[in-house]
Structure formats: C-alpha cells, structure tokens
UniProtKB/TrEMBL annotation:
Xref: Pfam families: Flavin_Reduct (PF01613)
InterPro entries in the record: Flavin_Rdtase-like_dom (IPR002563), NADH-dep_flavin_reductase (IPR050268), Split_barrel_FMN-bd (IPR012349)
Keyword hit for Oxidoreductase: yes
Annotated protein name in UniProt: Cob(II)yrinic acid a,c-diamide reductase
Domain Flavin reductase like: 11-158
Any one GO molecular function term: FMN binding
Keywords for this protein: Oxidoreductase
Organism: Rhizobium subbaraonis
Length: 159
C-alpha cells in the first residue's frame, strides 16, 4: 500500500479550483471549503464534490438531498479560510461572512462567487476517507468575472 503522506505530497502539486460546498437542512446550514469537485456531465448537467467522511457534521449533505458548489475568486481567500477552518477567529455561524442567497434547492449560494451550481443530490458514494456527492444542476448563478482562486503546493494562488 502506498504511504498516505507520500500521496498527499504528490497531490499538493495538483492545482485545484477552490470552492465552498454548501447545504441547508431543518434550519441548519453547512459550508466547507474544498478543491475536489468537477463536472460529470453536461447533458444532464451534473457535478461531483468530495467531502471528508470522518467529520460527522458533513452528514447533513446526505440528509438534505441537495448542495451547491460556489467557485471562489482570487480576492475571496479570507472566505476560503473561514469555511476551511484555517481561520478560527470566526466563531459560530460561518455564513455571517459573505452575502448569501438561494436559487432552487435552498442550498446557500454565494452572491459574488464566480459561478454557483445549485444541485439536487442524486447519489452518494463513500470511497475510503471521502463521500462523493453527485448532483444534478438545477440552477446556476454568475458573479463578477474575476481571476479564479486556486490551491496548489498547500497555498492559495490565482489564475
């Protein structure tokens, strides 16, 4: 078996677009900064997002039946840090930072994200340390066109 730290070091050289995946269920909202998300299909429009399965708070994504992917811009590093837990100075509700709305499903949509994809959860697959959320895109919103926020070599970059 491959040594996990060796694998993580190699993957740190893989650039990923920084996104906040969100959901809401029974009055509770959850948002997590991720880089493991991508398009699955354009007909029907489908995306996937990967979340750590060891965090019990991520179970809300399965229970809610919907999620949103919010693609961040280079000037949204502070928001990425808040939703990743890297910035512990924001206690309680992370959604007090940023301007949030909704489209179709009720998942929080970041108003000034580069693009937001509002999705109906179609399947959840647990693979090793992560749960993979597959979602049919029911709504899309665009924010201002700006440079994208990328994560590579364990740090933020812009593109």
């Amino acid at each position: 078996m491959l040594d996990p730290p060796l694998y993580r070091d190699a993957m740190s050289r893989y650039a990923g677009h920084v996104q906040i995946v969100t959901t809401a269920f029974e009055g509770e909202r959850r948002g997590v900064t991720i880089t493991a998300a991508c398009s699955v299909s354009d007909n029907p429009a489908m995306v996937l997002a990967c979340l750590n399965v060891s965090n019990p708070r991520n179970e809300i994504f399965r229970r809610s039946g919907h999620f949103a992917l919010n693609a961040l811009a280079a000037d949204q590093v502070a928001l990425a840090n808040i939703f990743s837990g890297r910035d512990p100075t924001i206690p309680g509700d992370r959604f007090t930072e940023g301007q949030w709305g909704e489209l179709v499903t009720g998942s929080p949509i970041l108003n000034d994200a580069l693009a937001s994809f509002d999705c109906r959860l179609t399947e959840v697959k647990v693979m090793a340390t992560h749960m993979i959320l597959f979602g049919e895109v029911l709504g899309i919103a665009y924010g201002p066109q700006k440079p994208a926020l990328i994560y590579m070599d364990r740090d933020y970059r812009s593109l």
